[in-house]
């Protein structure tokens, strides 16, 4: 590797099976579309679509869905060298129901264990992790061993160099004891420079729920910038240097709200890499999220620069 990656993400990967008939219970759906999925993976795809050099650290099963994941990553221009198979587990699949504008139940098939939780510390390319301009990890990666130790090892290796993003990514069903999450979140926050989450996720991490209080608590936990997503109220970003920005969402007819947060994340990374101020970054990320919310798919709907700029130009 001659140049560092713009972004390396670490965490969930799998296959999304989304119904082609919306507004009805899953039991009545007969046809589905298949997409690359997993939040950390979608963030890498989103940044790659914006022209960034990205890679994913994850695991799949040694099965046809695992082969599909490699094919999809390569087609999106995401480096898949650190996505390797785990023979004893199957590649996870995720189903959803789609009831626009704001009800999208998810059904995760990750038992007895998802391969992406079988990342071991000794398998990591820590030189690449340290060298990446942005490293992105998720709360799910802390939910179980050995992924928890591997995630912390990656964070420790960076020693807060560059930009290290903690996607708070709260999925209580992935934790044997959800009450344990806050302690592990607190440990990870010591090593991260940017924390991103919605109000539920911020509450898990901090114990508070009011947006400004969440941001301040995350700053107190050690991060340099806190990004609090407030749904229909927009997004709040607060930096340790005293700057802040609160911007409204982009109005859009929602088709499938899943994946909008990952588009936001990839665009956030793009703006941070470009050195933009807080408000332009938040507006750009909001626009990227709105584009994906207006489509059925997640990964394949991630927008290009020209598509985001077109939305921003419309105001």
Summarize the entry for a quick read.
The chain has 315 residues and is of the alpha/beta class.
Keywords:
about 325 residues, alpha/beta, UDP-N-acetylmuramoyl-L-alanine:D-glutamate ligase, nine-stranded mixed beta sheet, four-stranded mixed beta sheet, 10 helices, 13 strands, globular
Describe the overall structure.
With 315 residues, this protein is α/β, with parallel strands linked by helices. Helix 2 links the parallel strand 4 (54-61) and strand 5 (78-86). It has helices spanning 39-49, 64-76, 126-131, 147-158, 181-189, 199-206, 211-220, 260-274, 278-293, 305-313; strands at residues 7-10, 14-19, 32-37, 54-61, 78-86, 93-96, 106-109, 134-138, 163-167, 194-198, 225-229, 235-239, 244-247. The strands form two sheets. It has a nine-stranded mixed β-sheet with strand order 5-4-1-8-9-10-11-12-13, with helices on both faces. The termini are far apart.
What radius of gyration results from the CA coordinates? 18 Å
Q: How many helices?
A: 10
- CATH architectural arrangement: 3-Layer(aba) Sandwich
The stretches of 5 or more residues where confidence is low (pLDDT under 50) are: none
Average pLDDT metric = 96
Total separate domains: 1
Bulk shape:
globular
- Largest β-sheet summary: 9 strands, mixed
Beta-sheet strand percentage? 15-25%
| Helicity range | 25-40%
Strand order of the largest sheet: 5-4-1-8-9-10-11-12-13
**CATH topology assignment:** UDP-N-acetylmuramoyl-L-alanine:D-glutamate ligase
Task: Tell me the span between the first and last alpha carbons.
Answer: 40 Å
Structural class call reads: alpha/beta
Q: How do the helices and strands follow one another from N- to C-terminus?
A: EEEHEHEEEHEHEHEHHEEEHHH
């Amino acid at each position: 590797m001659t140049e560092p990656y713009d972004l390396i993400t670490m965490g969930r990967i799998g296959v999304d099976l989304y119904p082609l008939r919306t507004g009805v219970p899953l039991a009545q759906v007969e046809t589905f579309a298949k997409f690359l999925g997993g939040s950390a993976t979608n963030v890498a795809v989103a940044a790659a679509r914006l022209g960034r050099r990205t890679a994913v650290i994850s695991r799949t099963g040694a099965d046809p869905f695992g082969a599909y994941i490699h094919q999809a990553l390569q087609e999106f221009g995401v480096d898949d060298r650190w996505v390797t198979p785990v023979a004893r587990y199957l590649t996870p699949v995720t189903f959803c129901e789609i009831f626009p504008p704001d009800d999208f139940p998810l059904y995760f098939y990750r038992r007895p264990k998802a391969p992406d939780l079988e990342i071991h510390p000794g398998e990591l390319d820590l030189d690449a992790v340290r060298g990446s301009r942005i490293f992105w990890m998720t709360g799910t990666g802390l939910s179980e061993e050995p992924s928890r130790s591997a995630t912390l090892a990656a964070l420790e290796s960076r020693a807060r160099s560059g930009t290290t993003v903690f996607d708070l990514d709260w999925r209580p069903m992935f934790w044997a004891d959800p009450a344990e999450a806050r302690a592990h979140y607190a440990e990870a926050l010591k090593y991260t420079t940017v924390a991103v989450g919605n109000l539920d996720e911020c509450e898990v991490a901090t114990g508070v729920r009011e947006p400004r209080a969440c941001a301040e608590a995350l700053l107190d936990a050690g991060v340099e910038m806190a990004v609090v997503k407030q749904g229909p109220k927009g997004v709040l970003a607060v930096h340790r240097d005293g700057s802040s920005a609160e911007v409204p969402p982009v109005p859009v007819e929602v088709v499938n709200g899943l994946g909008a947060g990952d588009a936001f994340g990839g665009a956030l990374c793009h703006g941070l890499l470009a050195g933009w101020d807080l408000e332009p970054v938040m507006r750009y990320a909001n626009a990227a999220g709105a584009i994906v919310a207006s489509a059925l798919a997640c990964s394949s709907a991630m927008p290009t620069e020209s598509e985001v700029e077109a939305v921003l130009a419309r105001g």
